[in-house]
Write a structure and sequence with these properties.
The chain is built from nine helices and ten strands. The chain has 266 residues and is α/β, with parallel strands linked by helices. It has a single domain, classed as Alpha-Beta Barrel (TIM Barrel), CATH 3.20.20.150. An eight-stranded parallel beta sheet has the order 3-2-1-10-7-6-5-4. A two-stranded antiparallel sheet has the order 8-9. Helix 2 packs parallel to helix 3. The longest helix has 22 residues. It is globular, with a radius of gyration of 18 Å.
């Protein structure tokens, strides 16, 4: 398993500073955020691709993945991401699943996504780049089993899943190994962070209301030793990409400490 950082958690740094710091610490790769306010602009990716490829390589880093915020229905913008990945030598990127808010029926959203991902799969075949759905709270793939229900309609060489235990603390927790075994070849990438639940307030019915919040890798619900052991059990050899939103340490201390912490389990 290899280690990278999702550049969202280093948003205060320039791309040049990001790769310099990650290279000096001994990371294997970088996962670039693709957003209008991110390190790579989604509509300028073709112009920026060669620069980011050289920038990463020159600092001893692979481009582990790209992380845009586009849904499966935005096919022309996705085409640019596929092309940009191919230019960079990046094997995969994220596609955002439909949100779920109790207003629209899950079944309608699910079938819409299956239909839309047909075109995404064709682009994946054309460019040799995998499109991944992230396990994420607040959308229709908050658990491994719901993510699998979606991606099982497609070739795992084309459509994968970003396994995110930290997000599953908020919503969608299932036994780690069970979910990994279910996803099988679709498990393409892993995000690393942690969270826990804390008391928030007393509601009008005198109930104690809890809320989730981000915390350090050491102090949250996710047992990262267990997660890595479970990943090893299924033969996972891909990236573990840090997306640590905790605020206890400043960014530079955090990415150094996270690396040291996780390396002991690999």
């Amino acid at each position: 398993m290899r280690l990278s950082v999702y550049s969202l958690i280093m948003s205060e740094f320039s791309p040049e500073d990001v790769v310099t710091k990650l290279g000096q610490l001994g990371y294997d790769g970088v996962e670039w955020r693709v957003h209008e306010t991110g390190h790579i602009h989604p509509d300028k990716i073709l112009q920026q691709a060669e620069y980011f490829k050289k920038l990463s390589i020159n600092n001893g880093l692979e481009i582990a993945a790209l992380a845009p915020y586009l849904g499966p229905g935005e096919i022309e913008r996705l085409r640019k991401i596929f092309e940009g990945c191919a230019m960079m030598g990046c094997p995969q990127f994220r596609v955002v699943a439909h949100a779920y808010d109790r207003e629209k029926d899950y079944n309608v959203l699910y079938h819409q996504m299956v239909d839309q991902f047909g075109a995404v799969e064709e682009l994946a075949k054309t460019y040799g780049v995998k499109a991944n759905i992230e396990i994420h709270m607040g959308n229709i793939t908050p658990s491994a089993s719901l993510a699998y229900r979606l991606v099982s309609n497609f070739d795992p060489e084309c459509i994968g899943v970003i396994y995110d235990p930290g997000n599953m603390v908020f919503e969608g927790f299932e036994n780690w190994r069970l979910g990994m075994q279910l996803l099988g070849a679709h498990l393409a990438h892993v995000h690393v962070k942690n969270a826990h639940w804390i008391p928030d307030h007393i509601d009008e019915d005198s109930n104690l209301v809890w809320r989730p919040e981000w915390t350090t890798l050491r102090s949250g619900f996710v047992d990262w030793r267990q997660v890595i052991d479970d990943l090893r059990s299924i033969g996972y050899q891909g990236y573990l990409s840090f997306e640590d939103f905790s605020k206890q340490l400043d960014t530079e201390e955090k990415i150094a400490d996270d690396l040291k912490y996780l390396k002991q389990f690999i």
